[in-house]
C-alpha cells in the first residue's frame, strides 16, 4: 500500500468518515477551493466535525500534533489536485543528487501541478530520528498560490519579500512505522541557493544529516521534470479484478515514471556507488566526478532572457571510454 492510501485509511478510521472527501466537499461548497487550505481552516473543520474537546486532545502532544496536522494538509492538497505521483528511477535519483545548484533564480521554481508526490527508490536516502533509522519513502510537494493573498498578509505570515512558498511533507519509514518531517521553504526574489541555509535553519529537522540531500533532490527534480518530457512517461495502473470488492475500495491512480530512459554510463555508475551513504559529499580519487549543474543560459533579443540547461554528471581523468553528456532545456 502506498503512503497516501495508508494515511487516507488512517484518517477514515480515526474520524469514522471519509475525512478528505468531506473536507473537499466543504471546500467546494464554501467556494474556497481555489485557495490553499491552511491550519486554521483545517482546525475549524475538525472542531465542527468532532468537538473542541477532541481537538484539544489531539494537541496534547505538541510536536506530534504539528507533524500530523501538516501531513493532513500535505495529503489534502495532494488529494485535491488529483494525486499526481512522480516515481523516480534509481539512476535519475543518483544523477540529481550529484547535481549542483549555483545560480538558480527563484522564477524557475515551478511545479507541473500545484501539488505532487515524489516517490523515491527504496533505500536511496536514509537518516536517523529519535534513535531509529528511517528511509525517505517520498516527499509531498505543494506550491502555495500567493496571488490571491494581499502583500500585508504575506509579510505577516511568511516574511517580507517572499514570492515563492513551498511545503514539503517528508515521509520516513522504518519497517511499518511512519515518521513525518515538514519543511516550509520560503524564497525571496533572487538566487535560490543563497536562501537555502536560512530555510534549513528554520526547519529545525531531527534528521539534519540528510536534510540538504532532500532539499537538493526536491528542487533539482522540479527543474528536471519540466526540462525533457522524453525521459518521463505516464503509466496507467491496471485495475485489479476483485471478487469481493470492499465498499471503501479506492482504485489506484496512474503515475509518472521519471528517468525511465536514463541509463548511467557504467564507468559513472561505478563511481557513483562510492557515494551511496552521502551522495552529496563525495571524495574524489582516481578519477574526478564533474557534478551535474544548471547553466543559466542567456537567450532572446539582446540576450536579456534566461533559460536553465541541465548538464549531467560525468567523469574526467583516466577514463576508458569517452563520456557523452546531454543538455536538457527547462521550458517555460
Question: Can you describe what's shown?
Answer:
The chain has 332 residues and is an alpha+beta fold. It has three domains: 1-80, no CATH class; 83-263, no CATH class; 266-329, no CATH class. The protein has ten helices and 14 strands. The protein has helices at 3-15, 19-29, 39-49, 52-58, 62-80, 90-97, 151-157, 193-203, 211-224, 266-272; strands at 84-88, 99-100, 115-119, 126-129, 132-143, 162-174, 177-188, 232-235, 255-258, 287-290, 292-299, 305-311, 314-317, 327-329. Strands 1, 3, 4, 5, 6, 7, 8 and 9 form an eight-stranded mixed β-sheet that branches. Strands 2-11-12-14 form a four-stranded mixed β-sheet. Helix 3 (39-49) crosses helix 4 (52-58). The longest helix has 19 residues, at 62-80. It is globular. The two termini are 35 Å apart. 27% of the residues are buried.
Task: Detail the topology: elements first, then pairings.
Elements: H1 3-15, H2 19-29, H3 39-49, H4 52-58, H5 62-80, E1 84-88, H6 90-97, E2 99-100, E3 115-119, E4 126-129, E5 132-143, H7 151-157, E6 162-174, E7 177-188, H8 193-203, H9 211-224, E8 232-235, E9 255-258, H10 266-272, E10 287-290, E11 292-299, E12 305-311, E13 314-317, E14 327-329
Parallel strand pairs: 1-3, 1-9, 2-11
Antiparallel strand pairs: 3-5, 4-5, 5-6, 6-7, 8-9, 10-13, 11-12, 12-14
Helix pairs in contact: 3-4
Amino acid at each position: 500500500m502506498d503512503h497516501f492510501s495508508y494515511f487516507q485509511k488512517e484518517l477514515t478510521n480515526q474520524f469514522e468518515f471519509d475525512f478528505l472527501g468531506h473536507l473537499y466537499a466543504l471546500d467546494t461548497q464554501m467556494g474556497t477551493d481555489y485557495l490553499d487550505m491552511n491550519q486554521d481552516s483545517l482546525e475549524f473543520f475538525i472542531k465542527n466535525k468532532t468537538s473542541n474537546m477532541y481537538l484539544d486532545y489531539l494537541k496534547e502532544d505538541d510536536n506530534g500534533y504539528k507533524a500530523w496536522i501538516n501531513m493532513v494538509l500535505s495529503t489534502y492538497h495532494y488529494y485535491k489536485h488529483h494525486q499526481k505521483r512522480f516515481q523516480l528511477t534509481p539512476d535519475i535519483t543518483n544523477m540529481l543528487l550529484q547535481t549542483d545548484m549555483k545560480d538558480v533564480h527563484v522564477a524557475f521554481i515551478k511545479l507541473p501541478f500545484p501539488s505532487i508526490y515524489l516517490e523515491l527508490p527504496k533505500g536511496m536516502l536514509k537518516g536517523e530520528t529519535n534513535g531509529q533509522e528511517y528511509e525517505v519513502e517520498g516527499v509531498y510537494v505543494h506550491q502555495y498560490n500567493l496571488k490571491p493573498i494581499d502583500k500585508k498578509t504575506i509579510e505577516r505570515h511568511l516574511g517580507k519579500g517572499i514570492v515563492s512558498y513551498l511545503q514539503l511533507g517528508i515521509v520516513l519509514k522504518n519497517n511499518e512505522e511512519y515518521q513525518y518531517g515538514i519543511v516550509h521553504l520560503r524564497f525571496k526574489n533572487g538566487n535560490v541557493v543563497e536562501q537555502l541555509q536560512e530555510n534549513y535553519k528554520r526547519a529545525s529537522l531531527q534528521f539534519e544529516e540528510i536534510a540538504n540531500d532532500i532539499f537538493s533532490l526536491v528542487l533539482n527534480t522540479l527543474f528536471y521534470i519540466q526540462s525533457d518530457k522524453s525521459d518521463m512517461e505516464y503509466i496507467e495502473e491496471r485495475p485489479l479484478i476483485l471478487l469481493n470488492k470492499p465498499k471503501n475500495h479506492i482504485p489506484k491512480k496512474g503515475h509518472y515514471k521519471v528517468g525511465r530512459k536514463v541509463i548511467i554510463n557504467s564507468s559513472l555508475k561505478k563511481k557513483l556507488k562510492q557515494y551511496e551513504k552521502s551522495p552529496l559529499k563525495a571524495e574524489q580519487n582516481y578519477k574526478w566526478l564533474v557534478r551535474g549543474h544548471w547553466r543559466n543560459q542567456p537567450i532572446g533579443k539582446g540576450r536579456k532572457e534566461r533559460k536553465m540547461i541541465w548538464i549531467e554528471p560525468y567523469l574526467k581523468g583516466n577514463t576508458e571510454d569517452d563520456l557523452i553528456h546531454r543538455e536538457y532545456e527547462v521550458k517555460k
